[in-house]
Amino acid sequence: MSLRILICFHSGEGQTAKVVDRMREVLEAAGCEVVVSQAGDDPSPEGFDGVIVGDSIHAGQHSRALKRWIARHGDALDASPVALFQVSLTSADSDEEHTAEAQQMVSRLLDATGLDPDLVAMFAGAIAFTRYGWLKRRMMAKIAAERTGGAEPDTSHDIEYTDWDEVEHFARDALAVFQHAG
After folding, report:
1. Can you give the residue range of the structural domain that contains 147?
2. Which helix (H) or strand (E) holds 165?
3. Which of 11, 105, 135, 159 could disulfide-link to 16, CB 3.0 to 4.6 Å?
4. Contacts 24+ apart (CB under 8 A), 111-116
5. Does 109 share its domain with 134?
6. Looking only at Cα atoms, what is the longest distance across the chain?
7. Is 150 strand, coil or helix?
């Protein structure tokens, strides 16, 4: 039996969209019908066997678009198995402090929306220098330099921290949750 899965997400500079594309590939290879939609397009989660919800973190916050979508569709999400992921630079550091900070971001989202996911993941994001304006590129270069001990990064290309094996593992785990719920 083929499962119908909705992936609803918000992406700031495109890394979350890349994560969603990889998940879609994994799920489609497993025989699922996958519908991908931006939260701002307000897709209905009704009629799906499972829902994956994803967001990019900026300045320590989830997007308003995704929070509004969750609030609008809370009843339908409560009735469906849900997997949640977030993408942030905070998760690029796996030490206790950064892990706790990323978990706090998830907790704030869940507290604010009432979402109760069956599965949660926190993925490292990217620094998308090529998509930034001059000021943001300079600010992000300083952040990248702090991560590497002070060496100024080459801002002519992006720096990607996402662990694609983790993304694929999460997609397979979400599928297992959805299959078990059905």
Report:
1. 127-160
2. helix 164-181
3. 11
4. 112/67, 113/67, 113/70, 113/71, 113/74, 114/70, 114/74, 115/53, 115/70, 115/74, 115/77, 115/82, 115/84, 116/78, 116/82
5. no
6. 53
7. coil
Whole-model pTM: value is 0.90
94 in the same domain as 104: yes
| Domain match, 131 and 114 both | no
From first to last of its 182 residues, the chain has per-residue pLDDT tens of: 689 999 999 998 889 999 999 999 999 999 999 999 999 999 999 999 999 999 999 888 899 999 999 999 999 999 999 999 999 988 877 889 888 989 999 999 999 999 999 999 999 998 778 887 888 878 877 777 776 677 777 878 888 889 999 999 999 999 999 999 86
Residue closest to 123 by CA, chosen among 70, 64, 169, 178: 169
Name residue 168's amino acid.
E
